[in-house]
Amino acid sequence: MRFAQGIGRVLVATDAWHPQVNGIVRTLGSLADSACRLGVAIEFLTPEGFSSLPVPTYPGLRCALPSPREIARRIEQAGPDAIHVATEGPVGHAVRRYCVKRGFPFTTSYTTRFPEYISARVPIPEALSYAVLRRFHAAATVTMVSTPSLRAELANRGFRNLGLWTRGVDTELFKPERAIDLGLPRPIFVSVGRVAVEKNLEAFLALDLPGSKVVIGEGPQKPELRRRFPDATFFGQLQHKTLAAHMAAADVFVFPSKTDTFGVVQLEALACGVPVAAYPVTGPRDVIGNNPIGVLDDDLRTACLRALPVSRQACRAFALTRSWEMSARQFLGHIDRVVIDAFRKPRAA
Fold first, then answer.
1. Which of 140, 229, 274, 285 is most buried when burial is the number of CB atoms within 10 A of its CB?
2. What is the band of 1 on the pLDDT scale with cuts at 50, 70, 90?
3. Distance of alpha carbon 88 from the chain centroid
4. Domain boundaries, the chain
5. How far apart are CA 89 and CA 212, in angstroms?
């Protein structure tokens, strides 16, 4: 199957890549798998192979230092039909610069609330960060966002050419049947994600809830939170079937973040038949909305308790409608607008 302009190969530039474990990396991997089944190859230009520096606020992570010459070599070697810039880091900036200099159209995606993340760590006004991001994305033919409310919010901040690219979930990996016995008092409230200040885990761990509170993930705030909340259980970083088994064992999935643009883990929890409790903010508001699959409330404790009787069957049924193939089709529909004739090579008959 081919799209309107015969897209065969898309090059995605991303600063987020393995061994990182986060929503961006999982989304890009799922995109590549689904696009392949639609007849389109997704290749990645990542920090691999570039020199790098440690990121002070993200222990264990490193910032790539890509050279313009090597960026150009990798792009031209790939010979893509289209280029997509997935992140606003050094690799993303270098690829954007390459495209602008040569007059090649490209798309971008807005996946991380960097202004809020930065302001939580250093005294840099959010307005300044948004101005930088607005300039970055202004050169794109389409800037893809994950939810309608985020699209509206960015439009109000002066971003233009916004398009919707929703997320999906692997319902064969994340399913109720994988649940294991965690050996903890019920009800079990679980949160999954990077253990960092922007995820607002303190709001969850400080709640007066019956049963057990569980955190799955790693991050710089973990030692502090373990010390402050000794009654909580921290399982560390889990992946694939092990992660799915632990998520399916929960009674409620708690998503305390107020800064995520989507939160793929919400769909993963729902696929496991676990209802969601969250604040009524971008991400949860778009995923849960008025659907009977969770509870949104400015009082997170109220949301957690009211989510307990929510139908697990309804959660699973909702997740089954959110396929990665649908997500890939949206992505490729936007990509169709930026085919780069300069890179086209004769295709075998």
1. 274
2. very low
3. 14
4. 9-168+324-343, 176-319
5. 38
Here the tokens at position 246 are: 């632990």
Domains 9-168+324-343 and 176-319 are alike in CATH topology:
yes
Q: Average pLDDT in the 64-83 region?
A: 95
CATH homologous superfamily for the domain 9-168+324-343: Glycogen Phosphorylase B; (3.40.50.2000)
Average pLDDT over residues 181-205: 96
pLDDT tens, 244-256?
999 999 999 999 9
261-320 residue pLDDT tens: 888 999 999 999 999 999 999 889 999 989 999 999 999 999 999 999 999 999 999 999
Quote the crossing angle between the two packed helices 264-271 and 312-319, to the nearest 10°: 120
**DSSP conformation class of 207:** S
In sequence order, the 6+-apart residues with CB closer than 8 A to the CB of 61 are: 20, 54, 55
CATH class entry, domain 176-319: alpha beta
The model's pTM? 0.82
CA distance 192 to 201: 10
Mean pLDDT in residue range 36-56: 91
Q: Cis peptide before 292, with omega less than 30 degrees from 0?
A: no
Query: Could you give the CA distance from residue 51 to residue 275 in angstroms, rounded to a whole number?
Result: 43
N residues, the chain = 349
Q: Which residues on adjacent β-strands are paired with residue 144?
A: 109, 163
CA-nearest of 130, 63, 137, 129 to 96 is 137
What residues have CB less than 8 Å from 28, skipping those under 6 apart? Answer: 12, 14, 16, 42, 44, 86
Q: What is the 3-state secondary structure (H, E, C) of 120-148?
A: CCCCCCHHHHHHHHHHHHHCCCEEEECCH
- What pLDDT, on a 0 to 100 scale, did the predictor assign at position 59? 56
Share of the chain above pLDDT 70, in %: 93
